[in-house]
């Protein structure tokens, strides 16, 4: 039995089909607040546990009889980073130990062992969560992910209207980037092929390191329009985040993470064939970003 948390999120949506197609009859169980958000074919082929996977009763039911768990904490900007990651996950850690779950794959971040890991905001909190789950007795693999290509979708409106995207990183600072679909593929392989033991992290780095200037150049080529990078100050980023109503500690955690990345947080993992994943940024621009930039036809409305 494999249990998948956050099955309707970006990674979960990509992971579920891989497991359904490759599980060879192994039962799948999903934990979801609103089962209606699951595709009908998923609801018909999985056992559904309704509720939040931060709820002790829900995870107790979900982990009973489980051999493997995919663990992803949904970001909660109303909570502090420590409470949002480890606080949310403590009921799950107790349930993993109580039910003797053998294998856990968690979504985490790069940075462990780097000089800035202890002051990297959300990443520091994520690494502390890894330690919590590693202490449950289960074999644990933390997916140490690079920054997602999909983060650029948050800039889709400004790219469409002004041809610009923003961040706080130096324009020539190269770092790894990865597609969500590739993270899901690594997770699926670990969940289906559980010959591993002990505790370790698995860097997921994408195919190459890219700077904001590189991203702008590739977007320009693939989108057929000029895209430029605008560097924002840390102070302006914090002001923007607080203006959106984020918890102040969470907002400061985002800024600290961004600052740490600009100081080389993501540079600690060696790029090898095993840590590189196949989807290039150019291909992602064609397949995902370009369609997201298409104007919404008049007369249509968001279904949500």
Structure write-up:
The structure is a single chain. This protein is 41% helix and 17% strand. The chain has 304 residues and is of the alpha/beta class. It has a domain at 2-148 and 178-204: 3-Layer(aba) Sandwich (Rossmann fold), CATH 3.40.50. Helix 4 (81-99) runs parallel beside helix 5 (122-134) and helix 9 (234-243) packs antiparallel against helix 10 (248-262). The longest helix is centred in the first third of the chain and has 19 residues, at 81-99.
Helix content: 40-55%
Mean pLDDT: 94
- Strand content bin: 15-25%
The CATH topology of the domain at 2-148 and 178-204: Rossmann fold
Helix-strand blueprint:
Elements: E1 2-5, H1 10-22, E2 28-32, H2 40-43, E3 47-50, H3 56-63, E4 68-71, H4 81-99, E5 103-109, H5 122-134, E6 139-145, E7 147-148, H6 156-162, E8 164-167, E9 175-178, H7 180-192, E10 199-204, E11 209-210, H8 212-223, E12 228-231, H9 234-243, H10 248-262, H11 281-292
Parallel strand pairs: 1-2, 1-4, 2-3, 4-5, 5-6, 6-10, 7-9, 8-12
Antiparallel strand pairs: 9-11
Brief overview:
This protein has eleven helices and twelve strands. With 304 residues, it is of the alpha/beta class.
């Amino acid at each position: 039995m494999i249990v998948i948390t956050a099955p309707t999120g970006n990674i979960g949506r990509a992971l579920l089909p891989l497991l359904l197609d490759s599980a060879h009859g192994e039962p799948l169980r999903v934990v979801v607040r609103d089962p209606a958000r699951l595709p009908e074919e998923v609801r018909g082929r999985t056992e559904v546990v309704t509720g939040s996977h931060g709820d002790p009763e829900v995870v107790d039911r979900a982990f009973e009889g489980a051999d493997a768990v995919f663990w992803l904490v949904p970001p909660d900007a109303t909570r502090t980073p420590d409470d949002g990651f480890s606080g949310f996950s403590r009921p799950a850690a107790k349930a993993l130990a109580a039910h003797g779950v053998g294998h856990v794959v968690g979504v985490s971040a790069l940075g462990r062992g780097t000089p800035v890991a202890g002051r990297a905001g959300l990443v520091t909190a994520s690494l502390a969560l890894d330690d919590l789950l590693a202490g449950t007795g289960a074999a644990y693999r933390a997916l140490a992910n690079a920054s997602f290509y999909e983060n650029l979708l948050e800039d889709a409106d400004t790219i469409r209207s002004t041809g610009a995207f923003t961040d706080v990183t130096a324009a020539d600072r190269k770092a790894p980037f990865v597609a969500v679909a590739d993270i899901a593929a690594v997770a699926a392989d670990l969940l289906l092929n559980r010959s591993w033991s002990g505790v370790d992290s698995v860097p997921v780095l994408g195919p190459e390191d890219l700077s904001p200037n590189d991203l702008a150049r590739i977007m320009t080529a693939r989108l057929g329009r000029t895209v430029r990078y605008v560097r924002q100050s840390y102070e302006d980023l914090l002001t923007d985040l607080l203006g959106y109503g984020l918890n102040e500690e969470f907002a400061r955690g985002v800024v600290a993470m961004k600052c740490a990345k600009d100081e080389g947080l993501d540079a600690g993992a060696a790029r090898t064939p095993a840590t590189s994943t196949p989807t290039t940024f150019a291909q992602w621009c064609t397949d995902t970003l370009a369609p997201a930039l298409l104007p919404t036809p008049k007369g249509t409305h968001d279904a949500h």
